[in-house]
Amino acid sequence: MSAAVLTLVVATTVGVGAASAEAETRTTAARAHATDSNRGHSAQKSEKWQALQLQAEKKQAEKKQAAKKRAEKKQADKQNAAKKPTSTPTPPAEAAPAPTTPPAVATTPPAAAGGSGASSYPLHTGIVATTFWVGEIFDANAEDGSQMLSTYDANWFANYGGCDGVTTKGTCSTEKRVAGNGFFPTSMTPKQNPFYLDLPYDDVNDKTGFANRGSVIPWANQAAYAGKAGDASVSLMKNRWVKLMKDGQTCYGQIADAGPGEYHDSAYVFGSNDARPANARYGGAGMDVSPALNGCLGFAELDGDADVVDWQFVEAADVPAGPWLTVSSSDNRVIN
What integer pLDDT is reported at residue 74 of this predicted model? Predict the structure, then answer.
């Protein structure tokens, strides 16, 4: 090989290596930017992410194994039945065991269609509300960059019934909701209330939120929660009702998660002086709302941070009739 050709090869190789290094630098920077802009949840909750994922996978494997054993037993029973002579008398049926009373389940009071909508809880005004949905994955590289689970339900995606929107090429996306079908999703039937939201007070996985919940949550001493303040298997926030108002429209929803951005912001969530949310991200949002609430309230954006609402807690007995009661929930157990 001539000296001139050798020089050309070396120069080309160096150029390619430099270009590869530059591309890798741009990729690393892009990933860092994506992580910095991540709309994530609490640090406390994210610490449980991997453990919860492993638990979910283990439960799924156990279910599959149990289903396989049932199928095998059913097949064996059929084969044994076929071998038995037809003249074999059928043994007398045994008396059914006496029914047992299941253990009491902690629940929030059920909503009664016909409530007036009146509320004595403090009113929070001019609060930025962003939109989230079950099945949303907004940062696959983050420890908790999705809505496959909530702080109160490690199996939220499955227990809800799947993607609360439209799945295209494996991606769960939101969709516009309309009054014609009660603001329900068009591609699935939810098993839980599609009118859900979150507020920045995690009373289960946030250490401060759990420690203070008995003193800062106004309904902590109600009969439904008596003696539960120290019980981490019960949430005092899950499925509580919230009244939301925007531009003359009023809708109702239930708490299903915690966030955005902050997780023990009691001054804002429970305060009586209309305090601003401590969260400074996502336009200073003080709550996330579901696609159903997004449509019901007439948000200008499907997934933005420019819509503003007024809101206040409301007792279940005061919730009026509406599409938010089509599939309502009262269970406040924590599902790990």
Answer: 52
The domain containing residue 19 runs over which residues?
1-35
- Interatomic CA distance for residues 110 and 107, integer angstroms: 8
Chain segment 254-295, per-residue pLDDT in tens: 999 999 999 999 999 999 999 999 999 999 999 999 999 999
Q: Tell me, yes or no, whether 245 and 147 share the same domain.
A: yes
Q: Across-strand partners of 96?
A: none
Report yes or no: 51 and 154 within 8 Å, Cβ to Cβ.
no
- For residues 164 and 306, membership in a common domain is answered with yes
pLDDT digits (tens, 9 = 90+) for 119-134: 999 999 999 999 999 9
Question: Does residue 97 belong to any structural domain of this protein?
Answer: no
Q: Which two tokens stand for residue 244?
A: 């939301």
What pLDDT, on the 0 to 100 scale, is given for residue 177?
98
CATH number at 213 reads 2.40.40.10
On the question of pLDDT at 247 being above 70, the answer is yes
Q: How many domains does the chain have?
A: 2
Q: Is residue 40 within 8 Å of residue 257, measured between CB atoms?
A: no
